[in-house]
Amino acid sequence: MADPTYDYDVLIIGAGPGGYVAAIRAAQLGLKTACVESRATLGGTCLNVGCIPSKALLHGSELFEEAHDGTMAKFGVKLGSVELDLPAMQGEKTTAVKELTGGIEFLFKKNKVDWLKGHASFKDAHSVVLRQAQDERDVDKTVTAKNIVIATGSSVTPLPGVTVDNDKGVVVDSTGALALDRVPTHMVVIGGGVIGLELGSVWRRLGAKVTVVEFLDQLLPGMDGDVRKEAAKIFKKQGMNLRLSTKVTGVTVKGKQATLTLEPAAGGAAETLDADCVLLAIGRRPNVDGLNLAAIGLELNARGQIETDHDFATKVPGVWAVGDVIPGPMLAHKAEDEGIAVAENIAGLTGIVNHAVIPGVVYTTPEFAGVGLTEEAAKAAGHELKVGKFPMLANSRAKTNRESDGFVKVIADAKTDRVLGVWAIASVAGTMIAEAALAMEFGATSEDVAYTCHAHPTHSEAIKEAAMAVRGKAIHA
Ligand code: FAD
Ligand code: NAD
User: Fold this and answer.
1) Which ligand is nearest to the CA of 217?
2) Residue 453 burial by CB count (10 A; 0-12/13-18/19+): exposed, middle or buried?
3) So which residues are the catalytic ones?
4) Ligand 1 centre distance from Cα of residue 54 (Å)
5) Sign for the pseudo-dihedral over CA of 392, 394, 397, 399
6) pLDDT by residue (tens digit) across 4-50?
7) Of the listed ranges 20-29, 64-73, 100-109, 448-457, the one predicted with least confidence
8) What's the pLDDT band for 1 if we cut at 50, 70, 90?
9) Residue 434 predicted with pLDDT over 80
10) Cβ of 328 below 6 Å from ligand 2
């Protein structure tokens, strides 16, 4: 029953995967719900300038590369001359974004969630000031709610000495790199993480020379050590130049050209590198500016994040938070699951997210995926381990498709056989990893996975074989 003291039972700030999912779930549970969004469309970073547009360009550029590099011809598909129509590829991306963001608008209407357009900042723990543009001026309006969920997401981490100008298209962040109207001649990517490798792959496939400058001695921090080593080999083989253990100290721009200054990460002689496009991708930071958290006495942790308990409640009664703005991996599906859980907790149910089982996927070719602990983290946590590995080269489907790069690695506790982590490099690793997440959610042992019948011929058989390899009993390797 709605509390008449407030305009809403639940007000959510931000309509990304955390916020829009929380709003829909809250409304499904009978709560009077509104969601504030300052962007012109719903869906947040993910649908507008993240997951969806990047996957559209990854798909388009993969088709282009397969047509161009002879992969299709090898399978008997002769195409004649292959040309890139970049405006059409960008147009297809824009259509996908429009369809999906429009889909959220439809779901809001269907579930009776009010979309409040504008920027929200706290007045007190139960009210926000909503700033809306009306007739070319800003109008402030106060909206009250019994519960307020902060789901404001994240934005690009800046690098001192590097000025991003997405309109100019020379020094860009991920949003600019998704919207380029030309294929760069030389793109330098600052940061060998997920964004750098996905968007670097897009432009390499379309014809750019790509150099990735990474501060650490390996790509993809957070992934298993074997996966990171293999990633460097695979991206090098694909033609990317990797400058590991190197930092960028500044970028100067003259007209359409940029000059980067690089130094060894440990310090040493500086050098320069020229590029006609620089992509800054060194991480993301929580969006908290402009929320006026001081008004509710909510402090941030040392990383600028909002801390919550397991129920996603902050220290301020009635104020909750989910998604990129709180600790944990900055992933859309993590934000979504937290959105569902927070709505259920507000409704008096029990909403739980198992943060130990959140899969992560890098959508390059091949894909890199993992769930649970890395071998390094499992050892550091004191586990005695048994590890099974199976190469995709020995998987019949991958071999037939000529997609033999990669492997699956199953990490199990030596005493209990409980699966602690699964890592995969395979053309469809992102799809394969769902099985590993489900197995771990149900507390599976490596033997459980090994004795589960897998359809043949599928890439997923490599997970079964890697689980069999934990006891040294893989069949095909
Ligand atoms: P967001 O999606 O950032 O949404 C927050 C929303 O809040 C924004 O729309 C913002 O405008 C709004 N907002 C902020 N402050 C206010 C305010 N005061 N008032 C009103 N509105 C406000 N993750 C994956 O899992 N898979 C992927 O493939 C993937 N690809 C990505 C590719 C790129 C290029 C990028 C940048 C990110 C990618 N991510 C991916 C990460 C994913 O986008 C984020 O983890 C996810 O969007 C976080 O969801 P969120 O709801 O916490 O925040
Ligand atoms: P990231 O944390 O994945 O990678 C950033 C990289 O930049 C790191 O390897 C870091 O060591 C390096 N770095 C930092 N400072 C540097 C410097 N001065 N010079 C050179 N290298 C430097 O961050 P990202 O790639 O920007 O992605 C941001 C977030 O978005 C990630 O947390 C990721 O989870 C999310 N995302 C996810 C997906 C996906 O799930 N497929 C795709 C894109 C983005």
Assistant:
1) 2
2) exposed
3) 456
4) 13
5) positive
6) 899 999 999 999 999 999 999 999 999 999 999 999 999 999 999 99
7) 64-73
8) low
9) yes
10) no
**pTM here?**
0.98
Contact 435, 460 (CB under 8 A): yes
* 305-359: pLDDT as tens digits: 999 999 999 999 999 999 999 999 999 999 999 999 999 999 999 999 999 999 9
Tell me which ligand sits closest to the C-alpha of residue 358: 1
Best mutation site among 174, 215, 333 for ligand 2 pocket (most ligand atoms within 8 Å of CB): 215
Please state, in angstroms and rounded to a whole number, the distance separating the CA atoms of residues 196 and 210.
10
What's the length of the chain?
Answer: 477
Pocket test for ligand 1, best of 25, 41, 46 (most atoms within 8 A of CB): 46
Q: Give me ligand 1 centre to Cα 425, in Å.
A: 26
Lowest mean pLDDT across 128-137, 140-149, 174-183: 128-137
Cβ of 115 below 6 Å from ligand 2: no
Q: Whose CA is nearest to atom 22 of ligand 1?
A: 14
Q: Are 11 and 36 in contact (CB under 8 A)?
A: yes
Q: How far is the CA of 195 from the centre of ligand 2 (A)?
A: 6
Determine the longest span between alpha carbons in the chain, in angstroms. 71
